[in-house]
Amino acid sequence: MKPLARSARTAACEDRSRKPRPVGSVTRGTTNPNRLRRVDNWIAVHLGGLLRRADDPLVVDLGYGATPVTAVELRSRLAAVRPDVRVVGLEIDPARVAAAAPAADPPGLEFRRGGFELAGLRPVVVRAMNVLRQYDESEVDEAWSVMRQRLAPGGVLVEGTCDELGRLASWVALDAAGPRSLTLAASLSTLDTPGTLAERLPKALIHHNVPGEPVHALLEALDEAWRANAPYSTFGPRQRWRRSVEAVRAAGWPVLDRPARWRLGELTVAWAAVSPP
């Protein structure tokens, strides 16, 4: 990935009377139906209250890819929380924006050209999945900062990555002050070992999965608990995962979510526990 051609901070502060120039580079565009179902459902549950309280329930889907399917799905899933939610899909490639146009359903769903500057919008939620994966780690903080500056008051950025089928995923939730949590999510029916999630850590963490780093310690603890709770696989992978998360929490990790989410193959911990030194 090439470095940003100009300062993203400068771009984010452009005169609002001018149309912001997209900041960033075109992604590979890989997408599949239901690929982002796990993160969408997490947003609906954990950020549903934020959407319901918002005067303008605007959500940005940044970098939706070569087809608009995941943006369409996001709008559908969040409409169950806030029927008048507005989703704007942003892509830097004009050809992708044009190709997505037939899927638009104003005012609930539209597509525009834009990047990290969020096309000058002030969304209450931003979903940016599989966007920063192609960037250098050194560029992550700046990209995060630019997007966070564009959030509506109280808004949240959800940034992360997943595999092609959405069976393994992880994401960071950030607000105006910075990152606040990390979520790991897996399809338990196909999960071999929690350590497999290392392949899909967010860009800010993926190169820190080495001994001595906090995120490596978390995955090691989860793997160890998974092995220790192998007998519970008799009752299904959900029970095994739940017991594993309970063990991780008992070991002192700041687990933020509850058993209802664990049953879905999720684990959310405070960002401070995994933040790189």
From TrEMBL:
Keyword Transferase carried by entry: yes
Keywords: Methyltransferase, Transferase
InterPro entries (alphabetical): SAM-dependent_MTases_sf
A single GO molecular function term of this UniProt record: methyltransferase activity
GO biological process, one term: methylation
UniProt-annotated stretches for the region Disordered: 1-32
Protein name in the entry: Class I SAM-dependent methyltransferase
Taxonomic source organism: Planosporangium thailandense
